[in-house]
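Morning F.,

Quick status update on the modeling queue. The single chain you submitted on Monday has been processed. Sequence for confirmation:
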Amino acid sequence: MKPTLLVMAAGLGSRYGGVKQIDAVGMHGETLLDFGVYDAFHAGYGKVVFIIRKDIEHDFRERLFDRIARNMDADYVFQERTALLTDEEAAVSAERTKPWGTIQAILCAKDAVKTPFTVINADDYYGRSAYGILGSYLETLGNDDTTHAMVGFTLKNTMSPSGSVSRAICVIDNGNLVSMEENTKIEYTADGGVVSHMPSGDVMLTGEEPVSMNFFGFTPKAFDSFMEYWEDFKRKNIREMKVECLLPNGVSEMVTSGKGSVKVFTTPDKWFGMTYPEDKANVMAELRKKIESGYYPEKLWEK
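Structure tokens below.
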């Protein structure tokens, strides 16, 4: 059973200042997502499902989706603010202007995913080996298995010189995830250190911490746990205007409650991404180097 690639591409890109999911960075107008989907396709993934916003559908199809759909099985679903809310919940939270985060996003795709699947962010480059590692593992699982997985990275290798980043810091024991916590504002200090600005106060970090970049491998059984987490989150936060229901926190709860386990893999590939406008030039340079070395063809897709 070939795994599915599930791409979270509904973010607003507030720090980037535009729709980075479909911003051209390749030599023939390819987006960063083109390269991730291309890597997954050549690693044996059978389908890709994108989670997008309704308001970018036309540009998304024109600048990315239609090209990919000509080369592999592809679909997309919408994440809107009111998705998975009752009429009463939607009314109570009517002043909220954005969707509710990555758990809500994944649950919006529940009916479109029929096999074990890998989740990725739209604005991150993970490297070809990560897709192969996680895809090979997922092919061994059935849809009801609860032995999920992730590819972890080292914090210092995922920082942006342009500003703060959001990373989930992991506790790992014997190759398995014990817990993780989303740190939504990690940045360099003036003297080159690394600090996380948490609600309870600043926490100094070493840079060697293992972190999640939302590169997870799940079976469809995980949707049950995420739905329970989502319902509990709504009960506690439905009147909040900015708080988000985040995937790393939902995964941590799944593990600590005993509903599933997460095996942690590592990859030698270098991560890079597009959080800020200044990051685009680096992404283009890194991809050009890979093209010039023969790692990627100059034109990714045949048509």
